[in-house]
Specification:
The chain is built from 19 helices and no strands. The protein is mainly alpha-helical and 398 residues long. It is globular, with a radius of gyration of 21 Å.
């Protein structure tokens, strides 16, 4: 009995350590395989049986996330994101104007489409743009990383942790938008001001002489079909139809096509993320069964302490596991704490370079193209922007 308890706590602790680091030293494992293997060992140890583990996985969240990935993949293949960037950049030629356009463009788009997708697509396009114009790419990369996180705070479909919260809380899409959209917009203004202070080169309003021509490959039929279905999906969200079911119908309509091979769309689905989510649901059920959340129950006694716990856990074990761990502590129907959990777990991602997947996507994509965004370069931007936006969130929501 003592051995089983020791093994259970050992496996659970090692799994969360691996989730925090993103790897297990000496092994080729990522967060998805760590969550899956940890869950399997806990089932083998008898903490949960297979049926209980299966029931722990929230179907609404998995379906919603999968469906939004399919929608985003279609938008990407149709050329929507490239066209959006082209439109954003057509309004200005100056370094400051480009910074403003990229900040608000990527921030607003990430409110309605998964922020990781925006980071993945916008990073190489932004690097190409700054290289052609002879601009320092670092502030523009920081703008993309920060804005995709901050902008995604605004809606329930902006990032994976908000999708989770939408499934758990039952908050209507428009109610969530009404409260947190001002936080996102003001946060983008704060980010813009901070980059203006940190990087004098971006202050110029003098037009650059050369404006690059981006690849405008648009598949018209797919473009039009995808826009119509996506617009219908956003309307469904705003009038209060169920999130997961609406997204599933939209994704299914997009998969009925004669133009795009299905494997091209399904290759764009982040199966690693879906596997990780499933494993995390099981791990969370184990922590609840073992009553390991007891030390955090005091966090719901005040908004400030709850927000602080959210930020700390989001940086220790990343934001999605933090949301899964903390959501059972929120009293039934307490909208304020759900909003604090959503905003805190997302904005905490800007604190360090490893705080969010969007940050890592920007760094890796930049490195592949020969540009290095260092941990310390990000930290001097990340700390003030995170503290400022968290204070703004507390004052606004509280």
């Amino acid at each position: 009995m003592i051995f089983l308890q020791f093994a259970t706590y050992g496996v659970l602790g090692l799994t969360y350590l691996g989730l925090a680091l993103g790897y297990i030293p000496g092994l080729r494992m990522n967060r998805a395989t760590i969550a899956l293997v940890g869950s399997a060992f806990l089932i083998a140890l008898g903490v949960l049986n297979l049926q209980q583990a299966w029931q722990a996985i929230d179907a609404n969240t998995i379906v919603f996330l999968l469906s939004m990935m399919v929608v985003n993949a279609n938008l990407s293949y149709a050329g929507f994101f490239r066209r959006s960037l082209s439109v954003i950049l057509s309004v200005t030629r100056s370094p400051l104007g480009l910074l403003i356009a990229l900040t608000f463009g990527s921030g607003i788009l990430s409110a309605f489409f998964l922020n990781d997708t925006l980071a993945l697509i916008f990073t190489p396009l932004t690097l190409s743009l700054t290289q052609t114009l002879g601009l320092n790419p670092i502030p523009y990369l920081l703008a993309i990383a920060g804005a995709t996180n901050i902008g995604s705070v605004a809606t329930l479909s902006g990032n994976p942790q908000n999708i989770l919260i939408g499934s758990f809380s039952g908050i209507p899409y428009l109610d969530f938008l009404r409260v947190l959209a001002p936080v996102a917009l003001l946060g983008l203004v704060v980010q813009l001001g901070l980059l203006w202070l940190l990087y004098p080169d971006v202050r110029s309003i003098k037009a650059c002489q050369v404006l690059p021509t981006t690849n405008q490959r648009i598949f018209k039929p797919l473009f039009n079909k995808t826009l119509v279905i996506t617009a219908g999906l956003l309307i469904a969200f705003t009038i209060g139809l169920p999130l997961a079911e609406s997204a599933l119908v939209a994704a299914s309509l997009l998969l009925i096509t004669r133009r795009v091979k299905p494997q091209r769309i399904l290759q764009k689905v982040d199966w690693n993320l879906l596997v990780m989510f499933s494993g995390l649901f099981i791990l969370t059920r184990v922590t609840q069964k073992l009553n390991l959340l007891q030390p955090f129950t005091h966090a719901v006694n005040s908004a400030a302490s709850f927000l602080g716990i959210t930020v700390v856990l989001s940086n220790l074990i990343s934001n999605v596991p933090a949301v899964l761990l903390l959501h059972p502590l929120i009293p039934q129907g307490d909208t304020k704490y759900w909003l604090l959990l959503a905003a805190g777990s997302t904005l905490a991602g800007n604190l360090t370079l490893f705080g969010s997947v969007a940050n890592l996507i920007v760094v890796e994509a930049a490195a592949d193209l020969g540009y290095k965004l260092t941990f310390w370069e990000h930290l001097r931007f990340g700390v003030p922007v995170t503290l400022s936006t968290l204070l703004l969130t507390y004052l606004w929501v509280h």
